[in-house]
TrEMBL record:
Organism: Pyrus ussuriensis x Pyrus communis
Family listed: Belongs to the TRAPP small subunits family. TRAPPC4 subfamily.
Subunit comment: Part of the multisubunit transport protein particle (TRAPP) complex.
Protein name: Trafficking protein particle complex subunit
Biological-process GO terms, alphabetical: endoplasmic reticulum to Golgi vesicle-mediated transport
Length: 113
């Protein structure tokens, strides 16, 4: 019998409405890296439980650092925004601009290696 590690239920509007970690390994808190033939899925989980995912080309290195930087941008431009309400979709032009710059900078750094 195959092991089931996680169960996610997402509403039709795209919101996560249920999550349960079913890992047979004690102390496991979720996905960090899932590698497939055609993509890698990297995850960073903040202390508050908010998860950040990046889907990248297989074998792409240093995604942990990019995800931590994205988390820093999220805290600076989203959480410190007095008009943002928790659990609502993020609509912040400054956040969009800085996320785009961070991803482009990371892409340039990868090409230089």
């Amino acid at each position: 019998m195959a092991a089931i590690y996680s169960l996610y239920i997402i509403s039709k509007s795209g919101g996560l409405i249920y999550y349960n970690q079913l890992s047979p390994v004690s102390g496991c808190f979720g996905i960090e890296l899932l590698q497939a033939d055609t993509f890698d899925l990297n995850c960073f989980q903040s202390l508050t439980g908010t998860k950040f995912f990046v889907v990248s080309e297989p074998g792409t290195q240093h995604m942990e650092g990019l995800l931590k930087h994205i988390y820093e941008l999220y805290t600076d431009y989203v959480l410190k925004n007095p008009f943002y309400e928790m659990e609502m979709p993020i609509r912040c032009e400054l956040c969009d601009i800085n996320l785009t710059q961070a991803v482009q900078k990371d892409r340039v750094a990868l090409l230089a290696r």
